[in-house]
Write a structure and sequence with these properties.
Strand content: 15-25%
Radius of gyration: 19 Å
Shape: globular
Helix content: 25-40%
Number of helices: 7
CATH topology of the largest domain: Rossmann fold
Number of domains: 2
Strand order of the largest sheet: 6-7-8-3-9-10
Order of helices and strands: EEEHEEEHHHEHEEEHH
CATH class of the largest domain: Alpha Beta
CATH architecture of the largest domain: 3-Layer(aba) Sandwich
Number of strands: 10
Oligomer: single chain
């Protein structure tokens, strides 16, 4: 594992006195099998951390544990404005939603259901429709408001789900495989939106991905997970780590072509 001094966000350490997410000794055992073993992860506000690893490594289980959907041992806490709390406010974008292509549910229906207690089948008022449009416009998705969910491309759906996740004003944003089913153009737009959110709202972001090299220019830190944290640090360093090459095999990317990662939080 890379030392703190080797990590690109070592300069952010002082902010931990005011704002951070801390996971300590998190262990998940399901049906007699240890899925996650002693995970220690410290995410600063304004930091984007990518979790990579092989299938079955426990990546999605880690997100589910943070969400409180699976039992775990260990502790999670957040420090916001210098005040310690048990857990942060969380926004979550799942890997995918399953809708039939002919489902009558529209984007407006989905967003209203998430932000209002009024049953959707009562109809959407003009006021609610305009509110939904404003929410979606921040994520370049307002033109989708009348589209049916089943008709959206992967990238369009991810932007809608991101808009919904941000309505709770989260302190921690979790993204599970945001690149699944999304073309390169749509994925670039999605990552740019996430990067802008980090800059504007100073939120922590943890994302799970299989996109080993493509994600590197958008994140501050890369964590290699294989039931335990195998390596973490600057994306370029982790991608050249021998343990990662042992897990994934050589020749999956050209390490010399990876972009230089800035240490600035305004990325």
């Amino acid at each position: 594992m890379l030392s703190q001094n080797d990590q690109p966000n070592a300069t952010l350490e002082p902010s931990c006195r005011h704002c951070c997410i801390k996971i300590q000794d998190l262990t998940v055992c399901l049906s007699g099998h240890t899925i996650l073993d002693g995970i220690n992860l410290h995410v600063h506000c304004g930091e984007v951390v990518a979790i990579v690893g092989p299938n079955g490594a426990g990546k999605s289980t880690l997100l589910r544990a943070i969400l409180g959907e699976v039992p775990y041992q260990g502790t999670m806490s957040s420090l916001m404005g210098g005040v310690e709390r048990r857990r942060p406010r969380i926004g979550y974008v799942p890997q995918k939603l399953h809708f039939e292509i002919d489902s009558p549910v529209s984007v407006a229906d989905l967003v209203v259901a998430a932000v209002s207690q009024r049953p959707v089948w009562w109809g959407i008022s003009t006021k609610s429709f305009e509110k939904v449009k404003r929410i979606l416009s921040v994520f370049a998705a307002d033109d989708l408001i009348t589209r049916r969910i089943g008709e959206l491309s992967g990238g369009e759906l991810q932007r809608v789900l991101l808009a919904i996740a941000m309505t709770a004003k989260p302190e921690l944003l979790l993204l599970d495989e945001p690149g699944s089913g999304v073309d390169a153009k749509g994925l670039g737009l999605f990552y740019q939106l996430v990067r802008d959110l980090r800059k504007q709202h100073d939120i922590s972001v943890i994302l799970v991905t299989h996109d080993l090299s493509g994600i590197s220019e958008y994140v501050d830190r890369l964590v290699l997970l294989n039931h335990a944290i195998v390596a973490e640090g600057n994306p370029k360093d982790v991608l050249s780590n021998e343990k990662l090459i042992q897990i994934f095999g050589p020749g999956l990317w050209n390490i010399s072509s990876l972009p230089t990662i800035s240490n600035e939080r305004s990325l």
